[in-house]
Write a structure and sequence with these properties.
Layout: H1 3-31, H2 46-70, H3 72-77, H4 81-109, H5 151-187, H6 189-204, H7 207-218, H8 222-248, H9 252-259, H10 264-300, H11 313-321, H12 329-356
Helix pairs in contact: 1-2, 2-4, 4-5, 4-12, 5-6, 5-8, 5-10, 6-8, 7-8, 8-10, 9-10, 10-11, 10-12, 11-12
């Protein structure tokens, strides 16, 4: 069986099995009257939520590995040892983010808070002054903070939000910047002039200043931080898409497509987008780390948090700095996690750029 050619079929089969299993579990609980009862026991839903969370996470992990290991370009990227190590770190990072994020979401839906930290070493919100500022130990590998809360548990709890915000911001920037950049580069003239002048306005203002201004204007919340990052982030992608489109639109196959009578929309979607996306994706791999670093800076400054005690990597570093030099572990370990994740994106992104640009041959 050629897995590289059959991966789409594998995806369909796996998702079908997942849906059938979850429907079966739902029917089981429905027959017991759990879901029909107005006053059902919340704890009776926990096994179903855990099963769904595990099955989604394992399915995504397995399907991702099948795709990665059967893709020739990905295998070439992973021949580099630094890129392979970075890939493993980021794979674990995203799988944990998915698993923990689903638990946090489900705990809010069924109003069972304990579910959100069930698989963490400790309750990340447990206030315990008698355990304040304990140094790293076997019981608390990252030590504890000034409230006696376990730092490792808080770092793990905060992971989904950083993964979520980086994914949303980068994908939205690719979408918005892609539409603007491709239209600008392909049509040229007044369209190019207007769209690029708008883009220049966003590029002229320092990105971090604009992010802070928008976030503060919209109020202290996770959503405002996302919007604040999205507002300036698309401009670089618009420039990148435009430059790639200017190269592609003069290629002979574009002229051939026009001679065959293909419409502009067909040419843009089938030929232009397909041939400009590779270079953009290589840059995007690096940009995930930039978003995480910028968001950590925002939370370090206390922006984008409704509750100052909300576990976020940047805010943990900010609070930990106040305890230096006695409690050095408080800011050091969250900072180290940020450095490891951002560096992993840089190493993997550099390798992807080398492969796509042809500096590494098959």
């Amino acid at each position: 069986m050629n897995f590289r050619k059959e991966w789409k079929r594998l995806v369909i089969i796996a998702l079908s099995l997942y849906l059938l299993i979850n429907i079966g579990v739902y029917i089981h609980y429905a027959n017991k009257g759990t879901l029909r009862s107005v006053h059902f026991d919340i704890l009776s839903l926990v096994p179903y939520v855990l099963f769904s969370t595990f099955s989604i996470t394992i399915s995504v992990a397995a399907l991702s590995l099948v795709f990665f290991l059967t893709n020739k370009t990905v295998r070439l990227v992973l021949r580099s040892k630094p890129a392979l190590v970075a890939f493993i770190i980021l794979f674990v990072y995203y799988i944990w983010s998915l698993f923990q994020g689903l638990l946090e979401y489900a705990s809010g839906q069924i109003l069972y808070v304990k579910l959100s930290y069930m698989f963490l070493p400790y309750n990340p919100f447990q206030y315990n002054p008698s355990m304040a500022l304990l140094p790293p130990s076997f019981a608390h590998p990252f030590g504890t903070n000034s409230n006696g809360e376990d730092i490792l548990s808080r770092v793990l709890y905060a992971t989904p939000s950083d993964a979520e915000i980086s994914t949303i911001v980068v994908l939205s920037a690719i979408l918005i910047g892609g539409v603007i950049g491709i239209l600008s580069g392909y049509f040229g003239g007044i369209v190019d002039e207007v769209l690029m002048r708008i883009t220049d306005v966003f590029l002229a203002v320092p990105g971090l200043i604009l992010v802070i201004a928008v976030s503060v204007l919209l109020g202290e919340s996770f959503t405002s931080a996302i919007i604040g990052l999205m507002v300036p982030w698309w401009a670089t992608y618009a420039r990148l898409f435009r430059s790639q489109t200017l190269v592609v639109k003069n290629m002979q196959y574009i002229d051939a497509a026009k001679l065959l009578g293909l419409g502009r929309l067909k040419i843009l979607t089938k030929h232009v987008v397909h041939n400009v996306i590779d270079a953009v994706l290589a840059y995007a791999a690096l940009d995930f780390g930039n978003v995480i670093l910028t968001y950590s800076t925002l939370t370090f400054l206390g922006i984008g948090l409704l509750n100052p005690n909300t576990p976020e990597w940047g805010s943990m570093v900010s609070h930990g700095v106040e305890e230096l030099p006695q409690a050095w572990w408080y800011p050091v370990f969250p900072s180290l996690v940020i450095v490891i994740i951002v560096t992993s994106f840089i190493l993997l992104g550099d390798r992807i750029q080398d492969v796509i640009s042809g500096r590494v041959v098959y």
